[in-house]
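Handout for the seminar on molecular recognition.
Each group receives one record of this type.
Step one: identify the two inputs.
Step two: read the structure output and locate the region that could contact glutamine.
Step three: write two sentences on what you found, then compare them with the reference statements printed after the record.
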Amino acid sequence: MQAHASQGTTLHAALTAAVKLLQQSATDSARLDAEILLAWVLNKQRVYLHTWPEHILTTEQELAYRRLIIKRQQGVPIAYLTGQREFWSLSLTVNPDTLIPRPDTETLVEIALNKLHDKPGQRICDLGTGSGAIALALASERPDCEVLGTDISTASLQVAEQNALHLGLRNIRFLHSDWFEALATHRFELIVSNPPYIAEQDPHLSEGDVAHEPRHALSAGPQGMDDLQAIGGQALSFLTPSGWLLMEHGYQQAETTCNLLMEKGYCNIRTWQDAAGLQRVSGGQRHSDPADE
Ligand code: GLN
C-alpha cells in the first residue's frame, strides 16, 4: 500500500502490499482475503481487481483498506469485516453478535426440506437462529410454509430481521426466546436447530475465526451437549404428531444425541453426514399417534 509519488496507489500495488502483510500474520488465505477486502472497499467484484490493476485508489479507499487489513492481521474474520456471508445462495448480513453461517449447516437445510411435505401451511421453528441463516433458507425455499426463528440474543434477532427484510421474505417471523420458553402454545411440523455444541474446554474456541464469534452461540457445557440435551428433551411437546426434530451437532456427538432422542421416545431416529462425510445432523420424529409415546 505504498504511494507511488503523486500518482497514488494502484490496485495491484495495494494488493501486493496487503498480501505481504497478511502472510506475515500467518493467515493461510492471504491473497484471497486481500482480494475480498479490496473488492469490498471498491464495491466491485473480485474480477475487477485483475481487469484494472492500474486503477488508482482514492485516499479514502486506501485508508479504509489499510484499516481492514490491520483488523484482518489481528484475526478478525472476513465475514465480520465485510458484514456479509453467503449461505444457501442468500447474501446475509452478519456481525459479531451472530455466528458466521457455515457450509456444514447447509446439510441441515437440505434434510429439513426433505422432511417437509408437499402441503402448504406447515409450521417450522429454527431455535437459536442467530443471523437467521437456516430459517431464511427454509422460508425462501418454501414460501408456502410459516417459519419462526427464535434466539436468546436480541442483538442477533435484529440482524435476522434485517436479513428477512432485505430478502423480502414474508413468511418468516422472529421471537425472543430461551429455547422453548416463549413458545408455550406453538406447535410445529418441523423443529430445526444448530445449537452451541462445542465442549467449553475445547482449544478450538480460542483459534481462528471462532475466537471472534459469540461464545454463547458456540459452547455448551463440559461435553458441549447441554443445549442438544435441552432441545431434545423438550421438543416433543412442541411437535405435531409425525413432526420432525433435526439438530446439528459435532462430528463425535451423533451417538449421544441419538441415545437421548431414543430415551425421550422419538421414532425413526437417524444421523446424516455433511459434505465432508462427517456425522453432522441427527433427528427423530414424534409418533403419529401420541398415545404410542
Ligand atoms: N460447527 C461450528 C464449529 O465447529 C460450531 C457451530 C455450533 O456450535 N453450533 O465451529
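Reference statements: The chain is about 35% helix and 20% strand. The pocket of glutamine is lined by residues 102, 104, 194-198, 210, 218 (CB under 6 Å).
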